């Protein structure tokens, strides 16, 4: 036994994460999201179904987030639910607000994503721990404001004015889009660090889940911002 090495490194379980894994899973998850949104659009899914899909997606999203689940079935199920909701919501905006607004929102979202990716890839800015705390704090504050706006809206028409199409609403939507882009920057940084750290390959599902949340956030806010300039309501 004295001829055995003093220390033997543990045998790795499965493959380690690569950037190709993230890209491939990204195409799968975002493709599922777009496909379900397209089906919901074509089938003219009503807002009642969309509300149910949003609630189910919210609950499933909490499960994935708090359990840090890398189960592909859960994440793809979330993408389907989110896609159904997005398809129904997008059709409402396209029908009742302005024809072509959905395409404009998609293009705007793509430009935002590519812009953030360029900023990160060119090393123009990299998130710091202080920046991360600021983004999380800003997100909590934004959610709090939205909830207060909804509650006040029960008694006061338009609530605090965060979503009524006025100057304050426009400024708030711009701020929410920027916040979504900040989260996207954090997502890219987390992906990069996970690859460098040799995280398990299954981690790619959870990383892409976070990426999807940020992109959907940006899309909905761009859609809402465009509606302030395109419609009356």
What does this structure look like?
The chain is mostly helical. Helices cover 74% and strands 0% of the residues. The chain has 7 helices and no strands. Helix 3 packs parallel to helix 7 and helix 5 (129-152) runs antiparallel to helix 6 (167-196). The protein starts with 18 loop residues before the first helix and ends with a helix. 31% of the residues are buried. Mean pLDDT is 89; it is low at 4-12.
Write the layout of secondary structure elements.
Blueprint: H1 19-42, H2 47-67, H3 72-96, H4 101-121, H5 129-152, H6 167-196, H7 203-230
Question: What distinguishing features does this structure have?
Answer:
about 230 residues; about 0% strand; mainly alpha
SSE order, as H and E? Answer: HHHHHHH
Q: How many DSSP helices?
A: 7
Give the DSSP E fraction (strand runs of 2 or more residues).
under 5%
Low-confidence stretches: 4-12
Helicity range = over 70%
What is the residue-mean pLDDT, rounded to a whole number? 89
Structural class: mainly alpha
Radius of gyration: 20 Å
Form type: globular
Count every beta strand, where a strand is a DSSP E run of 2 or more residues.
Answer: 0
Largest sheet features: none
N-to-C CA distance: 80 Å
